[in-house]
Amino acid sequence: MTENYTFAFIGCGNMGGALAAAAAKGNPDAAVAVCDVMPEKAHALANAYDNVSCVSMREAAQGSRYLFIGVKPQMLESLFSELRQFLPDDVILVSMAAGTSISDIVTLAGKTLPVIRIMPNIAVSVGKGVILYDANEIVSAEDLEGFVKGMSYAGLLDHIDESKIDAASAISGCGPAFAYMFIEALADGGVACGLPRDKAQKYAAAMLAGAGEHILASGMHPGALKDAVCSPGGTTIAGVKALEQAGFRGAAFEAVCAAYEKTLALKEK
Q: Which of 19, 178, 211, 248 is deepest in the core (most CB within 10 A)?
């Protein structure tokens, strides 16, 4: 196989496009290929980055080292019915399809290939995302290291056993939507208290980003950090009481469980 591209992406939607952008920005000297059934999406990436080229599906499959599959799970069978005839024996498939196992991808490919399964989140587009990953035994340690290094611009890459990846994704993959809702609600509260909308949203977003970084940097339990902010009889503990009375903690708990249960349901179809 002649490798013209380090990374190639079939499907440039919200997630596939974000990962392609991360690959291009993080590897300016590497060639990146993109293709999509909606050519304007691929062309937008090619116009934005000097190292990105629009190619056909065949060129992406036959000319890449890491081939990212960025289509929805229900489209995989149709995609692979055409794609499998182009796949070299040593191309590394990278699948981000929810509820689709490594063994499922191998079956769809029609032959045993090296496969890396990932579950990314949308924040990879700004270099602050999370990518969970696991791989089958055919992926060499060197190739896995190359994948991690190549996608490091995207944010945190963390290896987790495939049996746990769906549960983990209910937090890291679905969590941004929950966080956006929280930020919006905080901003609404700020507006109700007299703040301009743009200021309230900026403060809420920066606060949440900083709080997350504080946990990662300190390694402390979030409960301990919460306690440190709550002065006796103060404003923060009054807000915490309001959240508890509204069922905030239980709602967040149930959101993760609901997302996970939906993933399991998708796998059964």
A: 19
